[in-house]
Amino acid sequence: MAGMSPLFRRKAEPRARLVTLIRKPGCHLCDDAQAVVEKVCGDLGVPWEPKDITQDRELHDRYWEQIPVVLIDGEQHTFWRVNEERLRRALTD
């Protein structure tokens, strides 16, 4: 489906999505990002999970300079600052 025209793609139900927040302890931007993720995912009924970059070498190597990072269904959505409306649109469009 990835190469399919957007006109023919079926929209995923928000509850069928998964948001992952890659963060680290003591990061104020991560705390801000988590507040946005919790709000949007809570409003839409979308499951989300936090991942600690200090506990996963692969995540550390890949995202260290970008945290916090938000993934939607395993694909990078954004990093550093999370925009509530943009995240909401990505989960509902």
Automatic annotation (TrEMBL):
Pfam families for this protein: Glrx-like
Species, as recorded: Streptomyces achromogenes
InterPro entries documented for this protein: Glutaredoxin-like, Glutaredoxin-like_YDR286C, Thioredoxin-like_sf
Coiled coil (residue ranges): none
Gene3D superfamilies: Glutaredoxin (3.40.30.10)
Name by which UniProt lists this protein: Glutaredoxin family protein
Database matches in PANTHER family: GLUTAREDOXIN-LIKE PROTEIN C5ORF63 HOMOLOG (PTHR33558)
Organism superkingdom: Bacteria
